[in-house]
Design a protein that fits this description.
By secondary structure, this protein is an all-alpha fold. It contains 7 helices and no strands. α2 packs across α3. The radius of gyration is 17 Å and the shape is elongated. About 15% of the residues are buried.
């Protein structure tokens, strides 16, 4: 388990929501100190704490644990979903167009 990467993802999502460590810690009923340790990858967390975190952050468990979960088609699709959720339809379409361009390049190069 890559606790450092898990903590980085938690911090990233917390910041997207404009929350401080103290606010997130209070929302999920843990101490500020413990929250800081989780974000720095110094401490593990219980399943109960993980569930409260994903619910408050509005992300999925597999997104937070992406470095610890094997890459399957469904996991990769979920990662795409996490990235585009909350974006405007125009930005989503732009992302699709970028992916099409990338895959067209791969096809052209024979990769």
């Amino acid at each position: 388990m890559d606790y450092k990467r898990l903590g980085e993802r938690i911090r990233e999502e917390r910041r997207k929501l404009g929350l401080t460590q103290a606010q997130l810690a209070e929302a999920i009923d843990i101490s500020d100190t413990y929250m800081g340790s989780i974000e720095r990858g110094e401490r593990s967390l219980t399943l109960d704490t993980l569930v409260r975190l994903v619910n408050r952050l509005g992300v999925t468990v597999d997104y937070l644990l992406a470095d610890s979960v094997s890459d399957s088609d469904s996991n990769i699709m979920e990662q795409f979903k996490q990235i585009i959720d909350g974006q405007s339809i125009e930005r989503k379409q732009m992302a699709v167009n970028v992916l099409r361009t990338i895959f067209a390049y791969f096809k052209q190069e024979g990769a």
